[in-house]
Fold this protein.
Amino acid sequence: MKKYIPRLIIFTGPSGVGKGTILADFFKKTDKNIVYSISNTTRNPRDGEINGIHYFFVSKDEFEKMIENDLFLEYAQYSGNYYGTNKKFVDEKLKEGKSVLLEIELQGALKVMKKCPDALSIFIKPPTFQELEKRLRQRGSEDEQTIQKRLEASKEELNNANKFKYIIENDTVERAVDELIEIYNKETT
Ligand code: 5GP
């Protein structure tokens, strides 16, 4: 049997592209060697989001204390809120021999690429910008101002897609998940 190589995996793509849907299916289908890093955020939970599963929801003060205490591998401000990756969790899991997947936006992704050059970077892109806008609106979880902020950020993200080792187009979820599994299997053995 081939030896498993644990990897730090950066998973990035514009808001509304379908990262969450792809990952839900990926984690169902793949082996148990990989864990999802649960981020801290100052944004409010959406309907159905659970503290400690989707995010650790914290106040701005709490988040800023965590920055002072150097608890983040990376953090960024996105669309008016803080988001950050818990350094200790990532270190512990990698030491246990597990891969860790970071679902993070562009600024954070670039920081991790710099700090951890061995990290595997994957970018999810929409078939077109129009399709992205449609998906973001269909989700119905954001108000118009937030949608506009996210679309603005998306342009910047799409312009940087070529900095990632792999780009997966989310044309259909099933195909995108298959491609992700193929990349994951290839890069961890
Ligand atoms: P959302 O509010 O839609 O859950 O997330 C907004 C953006 O923040 C998404 O692109 C998501 O991947 C990203 N994000 C989530 N957690 C983190 C994190 O810990 N660090 C960074 N830099 N981005 C994150």
In short: The CA atoms of residues 31 and 97 lie 13 Å apart. The longest helix spans residues 144-159. The beta strands are 8-12, 34-36, 40-41, 56-57, 72-78, 81-86, 99-103, 120-125, 166-169. The chain has one domain: 8-188.
